[in-house]
Design a protein that fits this description.
With 491 residues, the protein is of the alpha/beta class. Helix content is 29%, strand content 26%. Helix 1 runs parallel beside helix 2 and helix 1 packs across helix 12.
Length: 491
């Protein structure tokens, strides 16, 4: 089990690295996070919702993601309220102060069921567990669902990860160990220092001090890796501020308060010629080559926040009015529409049953309600068309509530008309992961390049999963080089 001294210590990526290393050794690693809190989600082949970080770990393990790997997912909705997902399906919502009272027992049952399903599907597999936050939040320890309770239940051998980039690494580790109960401390088999900058021998004295004062081996010192790994949560996006020297296109991405599924932008971020600039309400849009409005967990609340930001909203409307390219994904597409109706108050609106006017950049009407659309799907892209280019395959997954229809004539984005619409220079789709399709992504970028008089890029691009695999391999290479796993693997 990979535990961390805090949120953001690097547990998710260290778990992914461990999965890839064990796979290389001929094992079948089974990633598992009992409870995760994230609005960055994935939909498995059976239509179950799970955290994207566990999907990434599954790919690292060479497995198809399945929601049993993340049986409890909490999706923040604002106002200290979260949607509760058990084994891939929404089962309700809860305020933070009532969560453990109302959801502890059902959550533990879902975790045990997920474990059972995973172990039944892979009887020879080795569970690789990821903790959540810190394992020693003393006010929460008696009701902890996914850290030491799970480690004790499975008698897991634990590694404790600390992020030296944050500073205070000795206090992080020693303080965490001091707050463990006597029955829990023997579970910790090793310490791992993460994100170390500089020569490793500069930490040799620190390693010796930690081992002498904790009696626990330091298994390794992971260096700072200058790689663009998928962010574990939206806070990690704040670290992505540097501009690429080779960038020829600037794409503004709206960083709305209830941003979700920000991993949709990873394929664009990986393009050498593209610079993504995240823009929050209150900031100026500037003069980008295109604007992407990503997914939202609370579409109406984010629409209201955008409309209250005169600078950003006005800039977006002026940009579109002058022919600027705007592309919305899921909730981002919904708020670009003409009208949104939320009769059951599902999307954070304040007007009850009254229709809410959208930005009116797409002639769409969305009515929220009913069950979620949860499915992987593929289609044929009918847009964009450039010169004599042919149609292209396109794929992704749906994850939304609501039904959207076109009120005026609209060009369909793909063969399944209900998956996306195009109106002038503004387009939108319900397909999360749309930019992962390499040829389609390049064609979309080439329309921007043509506007600037830039030569087109080759459309002969593999699916983004190829790049993700190479990134996971480089992560595992560094892990194998800098971490001694043997104390962790010994019975």
């Amino acid at each position: 089990m990979v535990l961390g001294t805090s949120s953001g210590a690097g547990k998710s990526l260290m778990t992914a690295a461990l999965c890839r290393v064990l796979r290389r050794r001929g094992e079948t690693p089974l990633p598992f996070k009992g409870q995760n809190m994230s609005n960055n989600a994935w939909v498995d082949q059976a239509g179950g919702e799970m955290a994207y970080s566990q999907a990434l770990q599954a790919w690292a393990a060479g497995l198809e993601p399945q929601c049993a790997m993340n049986p409890v997912l909490l999706k923040p909705q604002g106002d200290s309220t979260s949607e509760v997902i058990h084994l891939g399906q929404s089962v309700g919502s809860c305020r933070a102060e009532h969560y453990y009272r109302d959801w502890f027992r059902p959550g533990w049952a879902a975790i045990r069921q997920g474990l059972g399903e995973l172990q039944a599907a892979y009887p020879d597999g080795r569970l690789v567990l990821e903790g959540a936050g810190s394992p020693v939040e003393v006010n929460l320890q008696p009701r902890d669902l996914t850290n030491l309770r799970l480690a004790q239940y499975l008698r897991a051998r634990c590694i404790l990860v600390a992020d030296i980039e944050r500073g205070g690494v000795f206090a992080q580790l020693v303080g965490t160990l001091a707050l463990l109960r006597p029955v829990e401390r023997p579970l910790i088999r090793g310490l791992l220092i993460n994100r170390f900058r500089g020569r490793r021998e500069l930490f040799d004295e620190g390693r010796r001090w930690l081992e002498a004062n904790t009696s626990i081996p330091v298994l390794g010192v992971m260096p700072w890796l200058d790689e663009l790994f998928p962010p574990e949560d939206s806070l990690d996006l704040l670290e992505r501020r540097g501009r690429k020297r080779s960038a020829e296109l600037e794409i503004a991405v709206l960083k709305l308060p209830s941003l979700s599924n920000f991993s949709d932008l990873d394929p664009l971020e990986a393009e050498p010629s593209v610079h993504l600039r995240w823009v929050a309400p209150g900031e100026e849009l500037g003069n980008p080559d295109a604007v992407v409005v990503p997914g939202s967990k609370q579409t109406l609340r984010d629409l209201e926040a955008l409309q209250q930001s005169a600078a950003l909203c006005g800039g977006l409307l002026r940009f579109a009015a002058t022919g600027g390219v705007v592309f919305g994904i899921c909730g981002g597409m919904q708020l670009l529409g003409r009208e949104l109706c939320d009769p059951d108050g599902l999307e954070g609106g304040s007007n009850g049953r009254m229709p809410v006017p959208g930005l009116n950049l797409l002639p769409l009407r969305t009515v929220f309600g009913g069950s979620k659309a949860l499915r992987q799907c593929s289609s044929t892209a009918l847009w964009p068309v450039m010169g004599d280019s042919n149609t292209l395959p396109i794929e992704g997954f749906e994850l939304h509530r609501g039904n959207t229809i076109a009120l005026d004539a609209c060009q369909p984005l793909c063969a399944e008309a209900e998956l996306g619409w195009v109106h002038g220079s503004v387009a939108g789709t319900y397909l999360h992961g749309v930019f992962e399709s390499g040829p389609w992504r390049r064609r979309w970028l080439n329309q921007l390049r043509a506007r600037k008089g830039l030569p087109p890029l080759s459309e002969q691009q593999p699916h983004h999963s190829r790049q993700r695999e190479a990134l996971l391999d480089r992560l595992a290479d560094a892990f194998e080089q800098h971490v001694n796993l043997e104390p962790l693997l010994q019975p």
